Amino acid sequence: MAALRLDGVVHDYLRGRQPVRALNGVSLTIGGGQCVSVLGPSGSGKSTMLHVMGALDIPSEGRVFIDDTDLAALDDDALSDLRRRRVGFIFQFFNLLPALTAWENVAVPRLLDGVKPGSVREEAMALLERVGLADRAEHRPGELSGGQMQRVAIARSLIMDPGIVLADEPTGNLDSRTGDELLDLLASLAHDGSERSVVMVTHSMDAALRSDRAVLLTDGEVAGDGVPGDVVAKF
Ligand code: ADP
Ligand code: ADP
């Protein structure tokens, strides 16, 4: 089963009254258990594609399927429900809540889902353990390094056990050694037997070479797709 499918996706933004075409006919199928990196120059449509994949943006044309659900068939409530339960998001600047501890940040999506804090603490702790941060559970983001904050964000992305994890420049704000460790952790999310798909936008060739597959975007179109070494060579 394809975890994610884009079929002829076009996306335009309006700049004043002028449409700007960010995606120009993107078709891609991403299966479960794959870690895919998305490369391309600035402005080539990488973030837009990630937003479309995560149902944050509805494309101007074309279809998007998540686990064979056609997003066009869903109303706003169903879309936000699907986003919350089936997609985990990881951002360059972590997007943690500064007043909450590490475990509370991990628990936030479950708490928003109406689960009581007591029962979710254990789940959050298990995920912090998984990302190697169990000993920082009671620390607030301000007391953590960048790499540690991104580990918290990765744990948070998993708390709803999503089939898809989308990461926008997850190592863009980290030194390269910390970044490499996190890339291994991200790839492991796809390789742990969960059949999860991980898609990450990156400027790092190193990140691309560590993934299973690379997609190159140029001017909103797929200009390369396949073995990372081959795709990186085109970029
Ligand atoms: P990338 O992530 O590869 O840098 P983006 O997806 O952010 O590319 O942007 C693709 C194109 O769409 C660029 O020309 C960008 O300026 C434009 N764009 C992105 N977001 C918006 C927006 N909210 N409003 C108008 N134009 C946008
Ligand atoms: P990146 O290049 O790392 O993808 P950007 O800095 O281009 O990110 O964009 C950051 C945010 O600003 C994105 O959410 C994108 O949608 C928005 N954005 C990008 N370009 C434009 C633009 N020309 N006008 C309005 N919003 C934009």
Automatic annotation (TrEMBL):
Keyword terms, alphabetized: ATP-binding, Nucleotide-binding, Transport
Domain ABC transporter: 4-235
Keyword Nucleotide-binding appears in the UniProt entry: yes
Source species taxonomy: Bacteria, Bacillati, Actinomycetota, Actinomycetes, Kitasatosporales
Native source species: Streptomyces armeniacus
One GO cellular component, as annotated: membrane protein complex
Superkingdom classification of source: Bacteria
Full protein name: ABC transporter ATP-binding protein
SUPFAM superfamilies: P-loop containing nucleoside triphosphate hydrolases
One GO MF term attached to the UniProt entry: transmembrane transporter activity
InterPro entries: AAA+_ATPase, ABC_transporter-like_ATP-bd, ABC_transporter-like_CS, ABC_transpr_LolD-like, MacB-like_ATP-bd, P-loop_NTPase
